[in-house]
Amino acid sequence: MPADAATTDAATTDSATAARERAAMDRALALAAVGLGETSPNPCVGAVILNSAGPPVGEGRSAPAGGPHAEIRALAQAGPAARGGTAVVTLEPCNHTGRTGPCAQALIEAGIARVVVAVRDPHPGHTGGLSTLRAAGVDTDLGVRAQQAAHTHRYWLTAVPRRRPYLIWKYAATLDGRSAAADGSSKWITSAEARADVHRARR
After folding, report:
1. pLDDT score, position 154
2. Which of 30, 57, 88, 93 would bridge 103 by S-S if both were Cys, CB 3.0 to 4.6 A apart?
3. CA 90 to CA 121: how far, in whole Å?
4. How many C-beta atoms lie closer than 10 Å to residue 126's C-beta?
């Protein structure tokens, strides 16, 4: 095979792998978004396991506090098919023992060969997962779908480093500065879509 053909094949393989990992990260982000508001005081993380050939074999999102993290749920679903595969995770795997064990160590013990992470965990007690994985010989990649993940994890990425909640202020008023008619006859001054959006945010 000519050298340039070999290079093309390798590039095609790399491109296909990158596309699979981006698709898996999209799925992991969707899983994380479903659980927003259910895992406090922990973040809601999403994870997808790809087997060594590429297809997804497990997925999960963080359980309420005290329950298994996303990586643990995904590994449990994948079973032995996780060995030699790739874990795609929206937030850096934790590296500490709290109410549950460290996810970084669980990934190592499951035989995961590669871990793809969207954003680092800013919590000082949780960091070091990527370093632990690398030290164990696991290939890692950081920054896949980082912008989307920063949006999904905006509550956590605000609360931890800034030590305050992420705030959303929704305000509606009429041109005269009032929020209701003086006689109390008015019911709503915003649209049904706006009210539905507020209820989603509250949830």
Report:
1. 95
2. 93
3. 10
4. 22
pTM of this structure: 0.84
Flag whether pLDDT at 3 surpasses 60: no
Spot the catalytic one: 38, 71, 92, 193. Answer: 71
Picking from 2-11, 23-32, 97-106, 120-129, which range would have the lowest pLDDT averaged per residue?
A: 2-11
Domain range holding 43? 3-162
- Count CB-CB contacts under 10 A for residue 37: 11
Count of domains for the chain = 2
Residues 41-60, mean pLDDT to the nearest whole number: 96
Residue at token pair 């008015």:
186
The pLDDT of residue 7: 43
- Tell whether 173 and 158 lie within a shared domain: no
User: Tokens 């000519």 correspond to what residue?
Assistant: 2
Active site residue 71: yes
| HEC readout, 67-108 | CCCHHHHHHHHHHHHHCCCEEEEEECCCCCCCCCCCHHHHHH
